[in-house]
Design a protein that fits this description.
Helix content is about 90%, strand content about 0%. The chain is mostly helical. Helix 2 runs parallel beside helix 5, helix 5 runs antiparallel to helix 6 and helix 6 packs antiparallel against helix 7. The chain starts with a helix and ends with a helix.
Length: about 180
């Protein structure tokens, strides 16, 4: 594989790292959110489930549009949706608002996950396809693990809202990377 192909695979890995963080951000901040808004267990459960349910919806119903509009434009649109959803989540004033924004973010993340996997596979040569898809998939776990570390540090010094703001800004920064290099 040439350098351009490896770069495409690595960008897909970075995209997946952002997704890993975005999906688990509510779990990282659940205790602080629950304490601030005095949430019951069922309210917290609904909040945690909102993004995951819509992530599945994004994968099933949004990602297939990439065949019509192109994978790159679809990834850019989904990164914008997820990034804006995360930034606005940092400004949420109620659990209902946060839940709605997690739905929005989940739709974007679901679209990204399905598209980035296909891009990594399409750009890889037949010989390296398995490794390329494995690397791209590894990004999700890396993003979740590194995101947890950042979340602990950010919450300790700036509160739970900073974790969402960081995730949104990182997502929008990756959007610029995709725009310039993929």
């Amino acid at each position: 594989m040439n350098a351009f192909q490896w770069q495409a695979v690595l960008i897909c890995m970075v995209i997946n790292m952002i997704d890993g963080f975005d999906v688990l951000v509510t779990a990282f901040t659940a205790a602080a959110i629950s304490a601030e808004w005095q949430l019951t267990g069922s309210q917290l459960g609904m909040l945690l489930s909102a993004g995951l349910l819509c992530m599945a919806g994004g994968s099933l119903f949004i990602a297939p549009w990439a065949d019509k509009v192109g994978r790159r434009p679809m990834i850019l649109a989904c990164l914008a949706v997820a990034g804006v959803g995360m930034v606005l989540s940092s400004l949420a004033e109620s659990v209902t608002q946060l839940g709605g924004l997690r739905v929005l973010t989940g739709l974007g993340v679901g679209g990204i996950l399905a598209c980035s996997n296909v891009i990594a596979s399409e750009y890889a040569s037949k010989r390296w396809r398995g490794l390329a898809v494995s690397l791209q998939s590894t990004g999700y776990a890396l993003g979740a693990a590194l995101g947890g570390t950042f979340a602990v540090w950010l919450m300790a010094s700036h509160g739970w809202r900073s974790v969402f703001l960081f995730g949104g800004c990182a997502t929008l920064a990756v959007m610029l990377l995709v725009l310039a290099r993929l």
